Amino acid sequence: MATRIYVPKDATALSLGADEVAAAIAAAASSHTLVRNGSRGMLWLEPLVEVETPAGRVGYGPVAAGDVPGVLAAIANEGAHPLCIGLVEEHPYLKSQQRLTFARVGVVDPASVSDYLAHGGYEGLQKALAMAPAEVVKTVTDSGLRGRGGAAFPTGIKWKTVHDQLAPQKYVTCNADEGDSGTFADRMLMEGDPLTLIEGMTIAAVAVGATQGYIYCRVEYPEAIAALRTAIAAANAAGYLGANLCGSGKQFDLDVRVAAGAYICGEETSMLESLEGKRGEVRVRPPLPAIKGLFGCPTVVNNVISLASVPVILAKGAEHYKNFGVGRSMGTLPLQLAGNLKRGGLVERAFGVTLRELLYDYGGGSVSGRPLKAVQVGGPLGAYVPVAHFDTPIDYEAFAAVGALVGHGGIVAFDDSADMAQLARYAFEFCAVESCGKCTPCRIGSTRGANVIDGMLAGDRPDEQRRLLDDLCETMIQGSLCGLGGMTPFPVQSALKHFPEDFAPRRRH
Question: For 327-395, where are the E strands, in sequence order?
Fold first, then answer.
């Protein structure tokens, strides 16, 4: 009997042989319908092959091309197979999640508008088109959505600022230059459910009165770029983009722009400079981009997850969304587990889940078998969190209270063999390479910081070097124009605070 078989086209799955698996299935089972979907986020099981059955989708993974004949035989005979994980939705890793933004990722065909509609897509846009723009802005504000790119600034306030500007041209831009280590949620969503991002940007345009949008996508994401362009063309053909949105008379056009390959372009004003065809450099603020942004016009600048969270807010209401989470951290956050963990992958949970739950209940502890020593949360500029703080809930204010930041939700784990002094030194090295060079604290401080740590480890007046390092970090925090220089000290200061023994002078060999 013909059935639908799903093989991910996600970059992680592709790197593990998903194309070869898909080709083997297509050659051996031409009567079945092969669908290239996104990843469910259980990356240790990729490539994860899913088969549609009356009871639901049954998964097999990780599948190699050589496993295909056996898997197909098991499908045909409804027999057991060692790679079978049962019903995918019932897998403990997925079942305990609260997927709002990622509800369709791994489920739908990313290129199909009809599949998107069949799974609740564009319900949010239809409701937005029936509302006054100010009502749409208020709904997003009332939901409590805060920027998921790291700054956690209230999305509704940003939109209201753009809405209130009287200007003949406004823009909606998406910062998809996902460059933080240990982060891949943006990529997974763009590859697995690009229409959710497109719908979120379209709702933003309706809310603020913009007619043109740009997705600034990381150059290292060719699969995401292709998926976005395919989905944009499909949305245009179906009337969900273009000159007459769903017959409303409103216009919104959307294009993809490939990023310049610089980490600094993840900063919003550098991104705008790059979009304008200039060198990616930080702009001095004010004026804010919401008032004078792209080409001098009022501009919404949000990241992928912020914009992709909007459709469910409009579809189900602000109250529904804000009922997830704790305190001022409302809704859900896609958290990315990476580093020294048995089960790396994506977990979407409401704010309030603890680091310990994520690392052990989902991540399974260290893959090395050694005790975990620390995790870095929020990318290469995030603080190192020690074991003593593993019970901290994922919550912007709770993390700030222990000197850490949630950032983009990337979590990189290290076991007890990690050298925290060298990891701290890497933060300075990273900043030196990626600095745009516009401000002195970042440009000079990053190089000087690495030299100072080298002096400490060499035993060259370590107490004096420590005082110098503290002063340098404070200068970078207070004097840098953007978050690159201003946040580079965070991993350094946290490593010094929690792991001082790793900074002891080393014996020269």
Answer: 329-330, 332-339, 345-350, 372-377, 384-386
Hey, what CATH topology would domain 4-95 get? Answer: Glutaredoxin (3.40.30)
Q: Cα 119 to the chain's mean position, in Å?
A: 22
The reported pLDDT for the residue numbered 459 is 86
Residues in the chain, total: 509
Q: Dump pLDDT digits (tens) for 326-382.
A: 999 999 999 999 999 999 999 999 999 999 999 999 999 999 999 999 999 988 888
Residue with tokens 């000079």: 444
Spatial distance between the Cα atoms of 484 and 491, rounded to a whole number of angstroms: 12
Alpha-carbon distance of 217 to 116, in angstroms, equals 22
Q: How far is it between the farthest Cα atoms of the chain? A: 76
Read off the pTM.
0.93
- Determine the Cα–Cα distance for residues 310 and 193; give it in Å rounded to an integer: 14
- The 10s digit of each residue's pLDDT in 239-250 is 999 999 999 999
Name the token pair of 265.
Answer: 């372009």
Contact, 26 vs 65, CB < 8 A? no
Helices marked H in 119-193 — which ranges?
Answer: 123-129, 133-143, 155-163, 185-192
Q: What is the pLDDT of residues 128-179, one digit of tens each?
A: 999 999 999 999 999 999 989 877 889 999 999 999 999 999 999 999 999 8
Considering the four listed CATH numbers 1.20.1440.230, 3.30.1370.110, 3.90.950.10, 3.40.50.261, the one that applies to the domain covering 420-503 is 1.20.1440.230
Rounded distance, CA 147 to CA 183, Å? Answer: 15
At 264, list the tokens.
Answer: 């600094």
Three-class SS of residue 254? strand
Which tokens sit at 412? 């990189």
Q: Which residue has the tokens 């592709």?
A: 14
The residues of the chain that CATH labels 1.20.1440.230 are 420-503
Across-strand partners of 51? 5, 58
